[in-house]
Specification:
By secondary structure, the protein is α+β, with helices and mostly antiparallel strands. The chain contains three helices and eight strands. It is globular, with a radius of gyration of 20 Å.
């Protein structure tokens, strides 16, 4: 009887802890946000936060978060389309600086466009970000799961 109560109490603690942890925002660092300032683009080091409780996507300053700067807050319900694009480019500058053999290889960049409607602070209707090669797959999976939208993929070789 004591064993059964101990197991039940232990299961309760595990379930309660997992529910409390599940409500925490999911944070992805090393995301670059591109903002239009007049006719030019400005790159900002950012983090992408997915809050399952508030059901919002937030792009904020990479190091200090929303305390320093918030670039976008988008409710999941306002997101209409998510497009991922992988582009390939030659490594000419790296080849000049490191080794000419790098001229024959291609580097890859991972881009994400999130389109949305009716967000007051963002009249453009989209956010354009560059993802890091180490976390882009996790970001795409998390975005698809959080929003329920299929991520459209464009792969350039």
């Amino acid at each position: 009887m004591t064993k059964r109560i101990t197991i039940t109490a232990l299961m309760f603690v595990v379930v309660a802890t997992s529910i409390a942890v599940a409500a925490d925002p999911i944070i992805f660092k090393k995301v670059d946000v591109f903002e239009m300032q007049g006719d030019s683009e400005k790159k900002r080091d950012a983090r992408l936060e997915l809050d399952p409780e508030a059901r919002v996507l937030t792009l904020a300053d990479e190091k200090w978060g929303v305390a320093k700067a918030t670039y976008a807050i988008i409710p999941y319900s306002q997101i209409t389309k998510i497009v991922y694009e992988r582009s390939a480019h030659r490594r000419y500058v790296t080849g000049l600086l490191v080794s000419p053999f790098l001229w024959f290889s291609k580097g890859k960049k991972h881009w994400l466009t999130i389109e949305f409607t009716d967000v007051a602070d963002l009249p453009e209707g989209y956010v354009y970000v560059r993802l890091d090669k180490k976390n882009y797959r996790r970001i795409l999976s998390a975005l698809g799961a959080a929003t329920g939208l299929e991520v459209e993929q464009i792969i350039e070789s």
